[in-house]
Amino acid sequence: MKKIVTSLAVALAATSAFAGGLLTTTNQNAHSLRFFAQDADINLTSLYANPAGQAFLNKGWHISASAMTAMQTRSIATTFPLYAFKDGQTTHNFKGEAFAPVVPSIDFAYVQDKWSVSARFGVVAGGGTCEFEDGLGSLEAVAANMIYQGVVPGLSAGLGQMGVPAEQIPAMVNQLYRYDLQSSMTGKQNYFGLQVGGTYKILDNLSAYVGVRAIYATCGYVGGIENMRYSVDGGATYAPASANINLDCQQSGFGITPIIGIHYRPIKGLELAAKYEFQTKISLKNTTTPESAAATTLLPLYADGNKVRTDMPALLNIGAQYKPLENVKVAASWRYYFDKSATKDGFANGEKINMNNLIDNNTMEFLASAEWKFCKWVAASFSWQNTSYGLSDAYMSDTDFNLSSNSIGTGLRIYPCGFLNIDLGYMHTFYKDRTVATPATMMSNLYSRTNDVVGLGLNFSF
Q1: Are 363 and 404 in contact (CB under 8 A)?
Q2: Tens digits of per-residue pLDDT, 422-451?
Q3: Which of 207, 229, 382, 417 is most buried, by the most CB atoms less than 10 A from its CB?
Q4: Are 230 and 147 in contact (CB under 8 A)?
Q5: Could you give the CA distance from residue 69 to residue 94 in angstroms, rounded to a whole number?
Q6: Treating both helix axes as pointing N-terminal to C-terminal, what angle do 2-10 and 137-149 enclose, rounded to 10 degrees?
Q7: Rounded CA separation 120/353 (Å)
């Protein structure tokens, strides 16, 4: 019973379908999909990455509305010798699909000679729902282990208790012992952020920004194991009373992020900027159904009313942009996430731990972008981004994994009239597959992902 519940509770993880750190989402609108390195860009649509740059917009009102659609898959090939009890195969494939049909954002700024005020609303972490229709390898392993340990009523396998090494099971299994089950897991994760702030021109070529972001987080995890069935040599089928273990946990929480930024123009055509977001403490409060009582009895962290820490780490952005020609601009950025300083509650061996203590190195990103306005009405852009995670093998699991990656983005900005421009953006991410073996559990996972995001934005100035 405890093994079932422990494996189930570990499966409380959703995924961000966008670029960024372990939790932070940095793709905020259609413009960010086609022009990644916005950290020194002068654009209302770069308000998230470079808020201090808003001081150099034209005087007046600026408003932008954007929507993105994200499609992602998470694939795990799990190798476990005891899977042979199901179909004779030791490697089973599990696939999760994440789909966010509409991820909105709204940006606003009012600019005067020396000062400006701005506000924005968007999804700053997570963004979507990830569903594993066939469950996860760690969940299915529970059923196989019950045969191996001889704890299934009516079955007397107990090969593990008899000292038979698990590695020998695949060769021994013929049609004697078998298991079957139904398993699924769905996670959703959305952190909505409302940011307000002000920018002041200290000098004609120097501005500073001070702001704050209020974050409302909402997450949900539904899934478990049902209809576990066992048989001996094609004979009687046994369904243990503990076979159906389900968890339905909804979480919500609130946090505040102070933000400061600076923008400097040393010479004509060159923009330099930096932004720092302080760490955001977020405690998610559980709303768990009574039907989940069996799970929360052994795992009180997810009991109704309890709180789970899931901080957003501090973030430092540094960017540079240069216009060698009036209709051409190139940009580069560096982003550093202070992951190890934040707190993220997790489980190891049935005990609560800070998952971020298992991180070897903080996340870093390198970004580069170029844009060419080849005619009066259209500008085209291309971008590249490298995201490098420093996660140890102990951090990685089939329920919560991140892969270092390279992303490319492209798109257009169309200028149909003087007060309106339109952004069309597309981003694709190439992930680096990673294999992690865990000798203590006899399991090995090959992790892979895919990611595509498209976006449309309307930007007004008057």
Answers
A1: no
A2: 999 999 999 999 999 988 888 999 999 999
A3: 207
A4: yes
A5: 24
A6: 170
A7: 35
| Alpha-carbon separation of residue 74 from 99, 133, 135, 447 (angstroms) | 11, 12, 12, 8
- CA-CA distance, 383 to 348, in Å (whole number)? 39
Tokens at residue 458, please?
């309307």
pLDDT above 90 for 260: yes
β-pair type (177-203, 115-132)? antiparallel
What tokens were used for 149?
């340990």
**Tokens 């030791």 — which residue?**
90
User: Are 135 and 96 a contacting pair, CB within 8 Å?
Assistant: no
Closest CA to 27 of 455, 351, 320: 455
Position 69: which residue type?
A: T
Buried/exposed code over 96-114 (b: 16+ C-beta within 10 A; e: otherwise): bbbebeebebebbbbbeee
- Encoding tokens for residue 456? 């449309």
Which 3 state secondary structure label does DSSP give 15? coil
Number of C-alpha atoms within 13 angstroms, CB side, residue 240?
A: 22
Length of the chain in residues, anyone? Answer: 462
Q: Within 120-174, where are the H helices? A: 137-149, 169-172
Q: Within 10 A of 139 (CB to CB), how many other CB atoms are there?
A: 26
**For the CA atoms of the chain, what is the radius of gyration?**
25
Two tokens at 243? Answer: 């076979």
Residues 63-103 have pLDDT tens digits of: 999 999 999 999 999 999 989 888 889 999 999 998 889 99
Quick one: pLDDT at residue 165? 79
The whole model's pTM is what? 0.91
Q: Give the model's confidence band at 175: pLDDT under 50 very low, under 70 low, under 90 confident, else very high.
A: low
Q: Which of 317, 319, 354, 349 is nearest to 339 (CA)?
A: 354
Q: Are strands 315-325 and 405-417 parallel, antiparallel or unpaired?
A: unpaired
Most distant CA pair in the chain, distance: 85
